[in-house]
Amino acid sequence: MSQSAMPIEEFSRLARAIEAEVSRVIVGQKEVIRSVIICVITGRHALLEGVPGLGKTQLIRTLADVLDLHFSRIQFTPDMMPADVTGTNIMDENEDGRRVFRFQAGPIFANLILADEINRATPKTQSALLEAMQEKTVTVAGKGYQLESPFFVLATQNPIEQEGTYPLPEAQLDRFMFKVNVTFPTIDDLVTIIDRTTGIDVPRAQKITTGAEILKMGELALNAPTASHINRYVAQLIVSTHPEDPNAPELVKNYLRYGASPRGAQALILGAKVNALLEGRYNVSFEDVNAVAPAALRHRLLLNFEGLAEGIKPDEIVAELLKSAQKLAV
Q1: What are 22-75's pLDDT values in tens digits?
Q2: What is the rounded distance in angstroms from the CA atom of residue 29 to the CA atom of residue 23?
Q3: What does pTM read for this prediction?
Q4: What is the architecture of the domain spanning 8-214?
C-alpha cells in the first residue's frame, strides 16, 4: 500500500458521514443507501429496482451532492439513439471560417450517471452504455474518448410496468456489481417522508467529500487483504450456484438454469471488503460476505421454466446457498 493511502479510521469516518448525510434526505432505505455507497467506493455500477415514487432518482441526486460530483441524468426511452447518450460529431466553423467536424459530448460525460428506466432503451442504445460502463471509454465515428474518473452508472428500472420495455440481457446485468431492491417504506418512514417533503424547508444534502477522496477510499478497499478461507468460501458459494455442482442445494438444482459468473465472486469480495472497512475493521469475515450476497447474486441467477412457473425469488435461493456454504465451511 502506498504511503499516501487513506488510514482505515479516516475511511470509516468519511463513509459513515456520507451515509448519515444521504440519510438526512432519504428516509429509511438503510440497506439501499449502504449498497449504493459500496458500489461507488469500489468504482462499480449499481442497478436499482423499485416501483415509481420510492426515491430512487432522489437518492442518486443526493449522492452526487454529497460527493460533489458532476451529475448527469439520462431518461431512457424507446426512441433514444446511441448518439443521444455518447454524443456526436457536428459541423462547426473554425477561426479561419472553414467548416470542420467538432465532437459534442453527450450526457455520458459526467462522474455520476443516473440511467433512468434503463430497460426502456433499445438494445442498440443499451450497448452504447455498456461500453462506457465496462471500458470507461466512448467510441464515436471510430474515435475513442476517455471518460473522467471517478465514473459510476446507477441505473433504475420499474419491475411492474414491462410493456414496451427491453429487458437487460444477462451480459449487461452482469456488469452491475449490485442489484438493489428498493422496497416500499414502513408506516413510520412514510410519516417522516410526509413531514420532510410537504413543508417549506425541504432538507438538502451538504457536500461531505470529493471524487478524489472517493478514489482514495477505493484504493484502500482494493488493497485490503482477504484471508484464504474467505476466498474459498466465496468460491464455493459461486460454484454452488450452478445446478451441475454436486454441492448445489436442491433449490438450485430444481429451479436454476445457470448460476453466477466469476464477476459474482469479485462483487462478493469487494463488497465484503468495504462492508468491513465501514465497520472500522480491516479483516473480512463470513458475515461481511453474507451481508452483500443478496445484492451481489440476485441478478446473476437465471431461473429455469419451473422456477419461473413456481414464482421462486432469487433471494430465496441466495438464502439457501448461504446456509449450504456455511455448512461446507465448518
Answers
A1: 888 887 788 888 899 999 999 899 999 887 777 788 888 888 888 888 888 988
A2: 8
A3: 0.86
A4: 3-Layer(aba) Sandwich (3.40)
pLDDT at residue 273 above 90? Answer: yes
Range with lowest mean pLDDT among 17-21, 84-88, 253-257, 273-277: 84-88
| Residue range(s) in the chain whose domain bears CATH number 3.40.50.300 | 8-214
Query: Taking the CA atoms of the chain, what radius of gyration do you get in angstroms?
Result: 21
Task: Report the mean per-residue pLDDT for the chain.
Answer: 85
Residue type, 150: P
* First-residue to last-residue Cα distance in the chain: 32
How many CA atoms within 13 Å lie on the side-chain side of 240? Answer: 25
How far is the C-alpha of 184 from the C-alpha of 145, rounded, in Å?
A: 40
The CATH code of domain 224-329 reads: 1.10.8.80
Which grid cell sits at 4?
499516501
Closest CA to 268 of 298, 223, 248: 298
Q: Measured between alpha carbons, how far is 141 from 305 in angstroms, rounded to an integer?
A: 42
Asked whether residue 184 carries a pLDDT value surpassing 90, the answer given is no
- The ranges of the chain annotated as CATH 1.10.8.80 are 224-329
